[in-house]
What we know:
elongated; Rossmann fold; 12 strands; five-stranded parallel sheet
Amino acid sequence: MAKILLVEDEEKLARFVELELTHEGYQVDKAFDGRTGLDMAESGKHDLILLDIMLPGLNGLEVLRRLRRSSHTPVIMLTARDAVMDKVTGLDTGADDYVTKPFSIEELLARIRAALRKNAGDGGADSQLFCGDLTMDAARRRVERAGREIELTGREFALLKYFLENKTYVLTREQLLEKVWGYEYLGETNVVDVYVRYLRNKIDEDHDKKLLHTVRGVGYVLKEET
Ligand code: CA
């Protein structure tokens, strides 16, 4: 089973995450400060690193910068809400992904699975798409939400893939019709509404946090609720 290094100075949070990861069958090592975290990360024993940004000693971005000189181990940054600069800097520095605190454990687990699969080279980097705890492995045509597989028809899959590739952007019916159905807008966009409804039933039903939203008078957007 995969070995994960967790670098996080909030001990309560670290223990909670460790418990959940262990429960999922991962082996977990913990470090509570940046310098120890970097030493442990450089050992190369881990399949994935969860790295907090605000850390005593060395901050997470500095740990990542130094680690990337010698290691390509996937790193998921744990960032504070609205710390946009940290996210951008983290991704520029070589982080594979980030989750924003406070995160749900389901979301974290989904990101971990996606990062590990991506690193294993299954299907290539571009085939992994996600929004919140929803993940799509495009090469394997596999969709999961909170770890549970969702069965989609060919058209629903294509529609969801286009939403994922353009997440947080409001997409008009005309746009969706042209990109997903592949023909020019002919005045009949009801088909889009019908398929969005099918898709919504499959991905958002039974979940408190909705991902597929209607923007009145404009179209639809796939994004995490804030
Ligand atoms: Ca911290």
